[in-house]
Amino acid sequence: MAKPLRSTYTHAEDEERAMTRTRPNPTAAMLVIGDEILSGRTRDANMHHLAGRLTESGIDLREVRIVSDDHAAIAAAVNALRAAWDHVFTSGGIGPTHDDITADAIGAAFGAPVDIRDDARALLAAHYERTGRELNTARLRMARIPQGATLIDNPVSVAPGFTLGNVHVMAGVPNVFQAMVASILPTLTGGAPLLSTNTRIERGEGDIAGPLGELATEFADLSVGSYPFQQNGVHGANVVIRGADRDRLDAATARLAALFG
Question: Please, what sign has the CA dihedral across residues 251, 256, 259, 261?
Answer without folding.
Answer: negative
